[in-house]
Design a protein that fits this description.
The complex is a heterodimer of chains A (220) and B (270). Helices cover 24% and strands 21% of the residues of chain A. Chain A has 220 residues and is an alpha+beta fold. Chain A has a single domain, classed as Alpha-Beta Complex (Heat-Labile Enterotoxin, Chain A), CATH 3.90.210. In chain A, the strands form three sheets. Chain A has a four-stranded antiparallel sheet with strand order 1-4-7-8. The longest helix of chain A has 11 residues. The two termini of chain A are 26 Å apart. Chain B is mainly alpha-helical. Chain B folds into two domains: 82 residues, no CATH class; 166 residues, no CATH class. Chain B has 14 helices and two strands, in the order ααααααααββαααααα. A two-stranded antiparallel ribbon of chain B has the order 1-2. In chain B, a hairpin with a 4-residue loop joins strand 1 and strand 2. In chain B, helix 4 crosses helix 12 and helix 6 runs parallel beside helix 12. The chains are: A alpha+beta (220), B mainly alpha (270). Chains A and B meet through helix 5 and helix 6 of A and helix 1, helix 2, helix 10 and helix 11 of B.
Amino acid sequence: MYFQKVLKGIKDLSPDAAAGMIREDGIRCNAWRRAGGMSASDISVQLTDNNILSHLNHYGDPLPATHAQYSSTERLTYGNITPFISTTAGALQRFSSPGLNICFPAFMTALQFATANFTTRGFIFYAYLITLGKKAIPLVQISEEVRELQLYHHYLPYHREGEIVAKIVIPSPQIEKAEEYDGPAAIRDLRTGKVPAPLQTIPNSGYAAPDIYCNIREIV
Amino acid sequence: MLGLSGATLQRLGDAYEGYAAASGIALRQDLGVKERDPIWAEKELLMGSCYVIAAIYRSLLDTGASIPLFGIASGVYRRRNNSFWKPLAICGLNREWLFGQEAGRVEASPQEFFYELLRQYYLFNSGDENALGRMLEHAATSPALVAQSVGNPPVRLQEYIAFIRGDIEKVYYKGDPAEDGSRAWVTALRMLLQRTAEQLQLAQSNRFQWTNEIGLLPFEPDILATLLGFCIRTRNRNEIRAFAEEEEARHDSPALFLVRLALEMIAASR
């Protein structure tokens, strides 16, 4: 089992909303936010192979009329109803993988999502997820390492982002902080060879650092 | 180009080049202290990766501006002994580095063999011509080796070999139009472009990522380096232009822009 640190970029989020997510609500999936909650049985039904593949490869595609959640009055996409939450963990230890020579840094991917490619404001959340090193789709508390092509045999054209997929909600205690970025200011910094500075950082006083959960027994 | 926004490509090119520079500055502070740490090495390659990404985005807008970025990236991978530096040096049109490398033993690894093959192909007619000949000879007697997939998108080594052999051997069929051999490279190149197009179309099929232009890589340096190996020889340029026109008239492969890109890069370097 691994405590995998991840980043999640969300654009156009107010500081109050970001603080609420860090300190109380956590980061919820679109299915939860749309329905206003999810029952235990809803969760079991939603966590399937098909749904994770739709999340990864058809996020922006409209639901077909045959889909159980299709609506004739609203154009819904797979992304609108997904029970999964995309995060990025970047690419360390990836260059030893055969044929993988180019990787995207987690920070840049998150910054692109947070600022809609440097055009708006948004937040990058710093969190951790629990992974197993194997597929465990029905287990809500375990996140999926979809970046691992050995685990996910379906070819994912965007696997270089180092994506880790969380389920239903990333709980507040697993979120360390959020940093707000201004897209146009960030690109100005980058053009001068500087890592962009956040406008503000919102820490989480209730953060449960993963270090304390490691089992180390000292010699006696 | 490719349905991507020029303004966004410009920002992304700037952003990844800037981030690479910022990472380099941060790494320099640790130089000598942590250089042997594997994490440090990965971070350096990640910096190189950012230069490659910047070069790819730039190449779609300003071909000439991409060449030095490929060159910088090549230097980073070369420093870390990662053989990906070879196709990057070709994309950076960096003959000095490509020449100044002893031919190593690469037969044991299909990927290493492929990158060395690209290097020797690029240098053919201007370096050790026997080196390419020896590699092709070895490939001809190693069915297990050439059946392996190499590069990105993964393509069997024998497809690349068919293209390279078709190019360098077409001279033997000159003046004899009845001989299919003079056009063998065309069939092989169509196949390589087809594989590249499939990868591109797969990426485009994820509409969310493609339209948001996040994490996208419209092509890989491997195929560009292969095309540059063909286009670098003056005698081939009219042929490849004619090929591009023919293909456009046939069905206009989505990967055909790479042929034009290779020709533009050579023109921009003069």
